[in-house]
């Protein structure tokens, strides 16, 4: 503040402080004509602060008292107002400086007295006596007369408190009598207040009457005749123009009545109200005289709220001490007595009665909130005024009338012309009626009739604005749309809370609320439930009582007492549903068995209560404080599961708006939260009857391949009935806000968000569950849309397939799943058009119909073919055609297969039920039921017939398309690349989509095979699927593992069906392109020798079983939860067909037992799964389903491989193997004869990742195919006995060689070992296989003049497949000669090693006690054997160095030739060899330990030697 003295002034007072103080004050006192108290800007000046500080420093002794007095003396001369300011400061200081016994206070008092005494010299005596207290003046000695104080009191009393007394006895009583007579007579209409005033004045003058007494009599007369306000109001205004005097007269009346403890008459309140209404007095003048004070009422309200909260708290306390004395109940408060003693409330009622709304509103606002109107008389007075104001609008509105015969009670006009004007239109209600309603609040409960009127007027107003439903847009312009919301919030809903069991008015409120969208309604419900009850103490108590009742009711809920409990719940929820539903939902979250009884007991609720229930569900689900996963973070919380189940049940049974809940789920998905998809899943399942069941039986899967009737009867786990209406409601809710498409797209996108964004820190088990839930719900929801929406609606709502893939980034499987109904619809429409365009369309033959159907498909799907081309790189379409891709994804099991057996079973069951119904009852109901069964059977027959016709058309279509599916650039690409594309783009994405899709994939592969599709190798496809499923198993979630197991089951079913019957194999496989192993480039046809024989096929099946066992054991030994769980699930699924070999079964049994024992006290779900599978496996073993290997296939021994080499290679090979190999002349002649007919098309990729995985099959194939054809034909003509004898001889010749080579193989295994035993699980066999390939190429190099097309297979999806142009024959022949034979050697070794390892592990597990004996054998080895082994090892190393140099040279030449041939013949640049890794590993990871101890190898070697010796004998 400017002008304030600093602290330095006081410190340096004697030197410079005083002068600075005076200068500062002079600056503040420049203008003598203006008051020094205020500065130029009107703010308080600092002069008072400075003087006060100066005196304060003197009192405390910081300055000398004499210095203070001298400074004050100088200041007095600066301005004439300074003495007054000094005395004011001294007066205030005097009041604060009270004499005390303490030394400091007495010292300050002495200093003050000294300053005052000295001020007598510089200030006037009169001013001192006027400003200072008498006691202080006497203490100082300025007042020396001791009787001065008593005289002052007498004068003051006489001046202010003594009144002049009129001697009424000397006044004329006649004058007052005449005055009363004149004022209380009946006045006519022509009576003028001026005449009455003249009479009053003449009486005062004649009889010398007291004017105030006359005013009192006039007011009393007005009080007795309130209807004569036209006369008395101007009379009072003319007689007494001072409103304060009138107020004082009225105040004396109120004071007298209060002192006499008598109640104030109502007439006095009316009189005061009329005086206020006519502005004769003001509310401020009379309010001060009314009792009680405002603070008393505020304390009373606070106490009432506190008592109500304490009451509710005590209701929630459970006392376990029965001896505790019960508290005495509170005595009910006498509300009437309380009201009568409150003059302010009486005046408020009177103001409302006379129609003075403005003053009444002002008075109400001065009181605590909701206090005045909580009293019934005031509330009814305001309601009466509202009746009057809204009467014209209510009577004129046609929407408010009950009917022409029902006449309402009209409201008479108000007596007071100054009352508010009546509203003639809806907008005029905003002037008075709406503010009155807002002020009235919950007190509208006192007048239900007025409440009905307000609700009907609100509904009529909204209807007049064009709002007829919640879908209607908000009206534009000046309307009461939002005003009605305010009235509902503040008045109607809070009033409804007080009305017990009034369901009629609740339904009436719903007629208005349902016109607003759910967003507005839910906001109202939130405030009603969470805020309204905290505003009113009475409501708070009522809420506590209701909560106590609902707790008692919920304790008795059961299936047996649904009706009585439901009635009690209904009565409670009519008035206050919100918090009651909160408790019910809380109980459901804790006790899930209450769901169905509670749902059934809610049938007595009002429509408003149902809507509030919907809001409470959304609010409870959106509670951010609750954890949505369990404490172990591996599964969804129980409360969320219970609430979701309750949502599905209650929304199906009752008509509750779904939009809010569905929008909540959509918002959660948009926020990348997929847990709440459980809600949508339950709703669609319960309301639409579409289940998301994954673990279907094969009978159900077959039924799902049929029509809609068959699906409904046999396809679903539970027969969901009566879903037509609820399904329609769900469909409408989806359509209102276009939520159907939004939810579909969000779910499709969320499937990736679950893994990559939402659950980055969550347990892998939870991630899998959420991914499964998202996938299942999407399929369920898409199925619901396809079945509920009309096809036109479906086509119009969903985006195109290209938009889904490119714009929304939806996976192929989901996009085609959603688009499939659109394709079928368009094809059917086009087919009908083409069919009806023929004039004889009713008599068309089957072939013509099929051709028409094919034309329709071609025309409809052609744009789809073109639209998907940009979705993949151009190199994709070099292997498969867009037509094949769209065909695969657009078809379903319904198109490929008719479940005749399932149809027949359901039809038979229907007939039996019809017969049983007819026999059990003879009434009309039984006949109707029997007719229904008969009709159902006929419909099933028609459906079966239609599906047969449809499948026939589809098969005709596929036959027409098959030649263009797989391109024939080269045989190698046709094999490897085609299968890779087929697996990557078709089989793997779809086989894990749904169970029916898994079966469809297997069926489609079978259809491709049976159609004899060119350039498609069925055998290679199966081999790629079975060889290593480890990565596929690892990457699956739980449900995906079940689907993948279903897929493997269906594939194995086909494989084992061919394996079981030679006749069936010859019929379905023998001459089919899918089983061709050599292709002729001239005509692309093969003879019988190019096809896999039955025994060769059984060898391949044997290999597949071992590969599956290897992959399963790898997963079981991984210790990883997901791998173990998925492998167990798949094993359970495929147990009918795997394992079937005894050794494999025993080995898997050991591993499963190990898993079960390890997980017994750790992961209980794995323990349960392993125990379950173990029981199934043992049951199959006991029942004799396992077979020996000799029964499964004819054991293939190691045959002599005699090849023609050049002299150098031949001698090196013979030297290494220790025996001379000779080629038969006949073989050479045959091979040379074939050179001119064949061309080499592809070469083996040296050292590629997947070069050895398919070699096992190739090896077994070559073993049988490389014999001369003549010899092969000759052997076919022999009888079985001769064949068996010759095989025995060959086996004996080979047996001797096996024992010698086993020792070398074990050394080679040890030599090629690249990882320690601990890392066997994650190591690769790549280097081992490469080693054997190189050695095989060196030792078994052939001069194969026959140039053939070899199937070079890779592993499942991880092979190195490059496109190769056709090379000149000579170049290819040279390259082939260099690389051929490696596959044969590697594949032989692989299968033999796999089987031997399995034997070894079984033997090691069962015979651990032999380890000591083996140890003794190892110690007995002679020095000669050790030396011999060392020399062989050194010789092998030297030979390996030579081989390595040759391989480097071969690799260099191959790269040069490859660079020279990179361009295609037409100039197209070919892509280099590339590697693909998807779904499967590149190499087999062996589940068996590679490292064998030296002892074990010696023992096995001895075993083989003993076996060979026995056979020689």
Q: How would you characterize the largest beta sheet?
A: 2 strands, antiparallel
User: Structural class, judged by helices and strands?
Assistant: mainly alpha
In which order are the strands of the major sheet placed?
1-2
Uncertain regions spanning at least 5 consecutive residues: 1081-1088, 1198-1279, 1306-1388, 1408-1417, 1461-1501, 1503-1513
Give the amount of beta strand, in percent. Answer: under 5%
Using the CA coordinates, give the radius of gyration: 53 Å
Can you give the mean pLDDT? 77
Helix fraction, binned, reads 55-70%
Envelope shape: elongated
Count the E strands.
2
* First and last CA, distance: 128 Å
Number of helices: 69
Walk me through this protein's architecture:
It contains 69 helices and 2 strands. A two-stranded antiparallel sheet has the order 1-2. It has 1513 residues and is mainly α.
Summarize, please.
This protein has 1513 residues and is mostly helical. Helices cover 65% and strands 0% of the residues. A two-stranded antiparallel ribbon has the order 1-2.
Produce the secondary structure layout:
Layout: H1 7-11, H2 13-28, H3 47-60, H4 65-76, H5 82-96, H6 103-122, H7 125-131, H8 134-140, H9 148-160, H10 173-183, H11 193-207, H12 211-224, H13 229-239, H14 243-259, H15 266-277, H16 283-287, H17 294-315, H18 335-340, H19 343-354, H20 357-366, H21 376-396, H22 433-440, H23 448-464, H24 481-496, H25 503-513, H26 518-530, H27 537-554, H28 562-573, H29 577-590, H30 595-601, H31 607-621, H32 638-653, H33 659-670, H34 677-688, H35 698-704, H36 708-715, H37 724-736, H38 739-758, H39 764-788, H40 791-797, H41 801-806, H42 812-837, H43 846-868, H44 882-890, H45 893-896, H46 900-920, H47 924-961, H48 971-991, H49 995-1010, H50 1018-1026, H51 1030-1034, H52 1038-1060, H53 1062-1068, H54 1094-1116, H55 1121-1133, H56 1142-1158, H57 1164-1182, H58 1189-1192, H59 1207-1217, H60 1225-1233, H61 1255-1265, H62 1269-1277, H63 1280-1311, H64 1326-1339, E1 1360-1361, H65 1369-1379, H66 1382-1406, H67 1411-1419, H68 1423-1460, E2 1474-1475, H69 1494-1512
Antiparallel strand pairs: 1-2
Helix pairs in contact: 3-4, 3-5, 3-6, 4-6, 10-11, 10-12, 11-13, 12-13, 12-14, 12-15, 15-19, 17-27, 19-20, 19-21, 21-22, 21-23, 22-24, 23-25, 24-25, 24-26, 27-28, 27-29, 28-30, 29-31, 29-32, 30-32, 32-34, 33-38, 34-39, 35-36, 38-39, 39-42, 42-43, 43-44, 43-47, 46-47, 48-49, 48-50, 49-52, 52-53, ...
